Amino acid sequence: MSARSVVIVATGGANIASLVYALERLGVRATLSAEPERIRDASHVILPGVGAAADAMRRLRETTLDRVITRLPQPVLGICLGMQLLFDASAEGPTPCLGILPGRVERLAAAPDRPVPHIGWNTIEPCVDSPLLEGLRAGDRAYFVHSYAAPVSSATLATTDYGAPFSACVRRDRFFGVQFHPERSAAVGARVLANFLGVD
Fold first, then answer.
1. Which of 80, 97, 118, 146 is catalytic?
2. Which of these is catalytic: 44, 146, 169, 183?
3. Containing domain of residue 98, as a range?
4. What is the pTM of this model?
């Protein structure tokens, strides 16, 4: 795994240090970059994100990375907001996104016992066999921090329920996404990152 060349796209979001450290624990040194050539040369690309969809998409467009990301031939993993950016649009704004996955990300419905944002540990329920989820079982727990979520669709690999089911993991071709934060999800998160790095 140490031979992997991993680039984390510099989207301006927070929590990058935790992600870098999580990858280092797997024996992988990742590079943070907004340089198109460096991103194209990577074996694996991670699109992180914390914050607002409109801000993240503006930064990607200003650096032409929106066009770079959609044309990447190698495996790409979107994390949290980074996963949401893979879809056609987000209701936050509303904001046009990268359009790699069909559908629109919607705001979670709040309730007295379900505040939004959804923060904390929740179960993930795999519904499709995928190399991203190898070794995971129904009921495994991951750490979430988000106010918007993607609907369940043909791209869904696993779901989580917060008043209603939403996509916890998605895939289309070489593009993968997880709504939770693997860098904060202990052994489950480490397994997901290791599985992604094992995809050729």
1. 80
2. 183
3. 6-197
4. 0.96
